[in-house]
Amino acid sequence: MTSKKGQTQDTGSISSDASDGSELIPAEVQANIRHDDHAPTRDVAVPGTTVDDEGLINNFATEPKVYPSTYPSPRKQRRYLFLGATAIVFVAVLVAIAFSVS
């Protein structure tokens, strides 16, 4: 292949300072190596996380604990009624202000 200046370039050769990727290792492996015995750690404190043979962390979804719902007490029902009525009055006041301004 020739360049614009008439010099030839060989595209098949790789320079001696180029990386072929063989010296690269995943970042998690370096992070999981213990400094005292250089063995990958296997203790993972986060539920839903595992560590494979190479020391890579694998995260997966955990299911939440299932519990039955309870019907609200009469006191909570009155509170919900009061909050709903307050919200309706608030929205009605906002709509009235919007109509009066326009």
Description:
With 102 residues, the protein is mainly alpha-helical. The chain is 33% helix and 6% strand. It has two helices and two strands. The chain has helices at 27-32, 74-101, and strands spanning 49-51, 57-59. It has a two-stranded antiparallel sheet with strand order 1-2. A hairpin with a 5-residue loop joins strand 1 (49-51) and strand 2. The relative contact order is 0.07.
Secondary structure: number of strands: 2
Shape call: elongated
* Order of secondary-structure elements: HEEH
Spatial gap, N to C terminus: 73 Å
The major sheet is characterized as:
2 strands, antiparallel
Residue fraction in strands: 5-15%
From the helix content, strand content and strand pairing, which structural class follows?
mainly alpha
- Averaged pLDDT: 75
Count of DSSP-assigned helices: 2
Low-confidence stretches: none
Percent in helix: 25-40%
Rg over CA atoms = 33 Å
Give short descriptive properties of this protein:
102 residues; mainly alpha; two-stranded antiparallel sheet; 2 strands; 6% strand; elongated
